[in-house]
Amino acid sequence: MEAPIADPQPPSLSAPSSVHPGLQLVPLKCCSPIQKRCSRTSSGLSEMASLESTLPKALPATFMKEITNDFSINQELGRSVFGTVYKGVLPGGGGMIAVKRLAENAPVPFGITFETEVTNLMALKHENIVELVHYCHEAQKKVVQHNGRYVIVDVIESCLCYKYLPNGSLDKHLYDTPSMINWDTRFKIIKGICQGLHFLHKDLNLDTERGPLIHMNLVPNSIWLDDNWVPKIADFGLSRLFGKEQTRMYTVNVKGYNGYMAPEYLYRGEISTMSDIYSLGMLILEITTGEKNCAVSEDRSARKFVDNVHQNLKTDEQIIHKYPSLGPNGLQQVRACIVIGLKCVEVDRSKRPTIVDIVDKLNGKRVPILDLA
């Protein structure tokens, strides 16, 4: 079921001159136009300055292993085809961070994933976007056997360090323990994801040189949750930053998670903001129903799942049966989320709502494209 997304071409990175040649490290001090538009509050700056003061000036692979207990499964917070996220416990009572160790066997070269995520994420500051703190990219010489001979190879350890999010990824809570997440929490998560995507699709247009950032990997394991169940969009390794006037691009390397790829991307390689809207619709339907989108090779766009939602939750009686404790306001919210989700996964991209339409609908405004037919 899993496959990575198309091969982006990010700008190259170079190591700072004060760092060992085999190690790349940058503190979170980016002065791009995006960051100037989205600066943190003074309290947020103080919090991050405190967190950064607990980190060493360089983050070698040995330090990554130390704080994650050698990447122990007991400290795992979530995983995807691009890597595994671990809880990192800083020494001396310095707090915790989330450490994503990029997978060596990811179908997209992790060097590309690493550089794309760093360059696209470092300047993004929003409540519903995961916060990158530091990164480490270290090459080590190792002796291995190859075709009966001993050879020296470069083994690269790539880790991305984020602000710690104790509830891990959404997929760990969405299906196995649905009773733990009540409707109010689910609605909060849906609204937060939509607000984060609004930032990526619309707010970046405030910059004079940049257009929207297309995430291209909106799936449950790319949504992380803090201790208050505030969602953060993560996994930017395959994101695409558009130019100011650009509305779409094409690729011949069509890859992604079955069930979340828009048909025009899956069959024509077309990438646009509507690619994310389709994936968002699937997420909204899964969060609302608590049911997993079980796409298969014969149904890569999960149309059977969509049809089931349409049939099983099309009346108020069916919704109340699923959520018997809902009041009138909650019933209206569920109904709105089902309408939004189903419109987002329209096969015809021109019939899908924009992220502005979706946020307006969730805030109780009337949106013609999302009116019940």
UniProtKB/TrEMBL annotation:
InterPro entries: Kinase-like_dom_sf, Prot_kinase_dom. Pfam families: Pkinase. Gene3D superfamilies: Phosphorylase Kinase, domain 1, Transferase(Phosphotransferase) domain 1. Residues 71-370 form the Protein kinase domain. The lineage of its organism: Eukaryota, Viridiplantae, Streptophyta, Embryophyta, Tracheophyta. This is Protein kinase domain-containing protein.
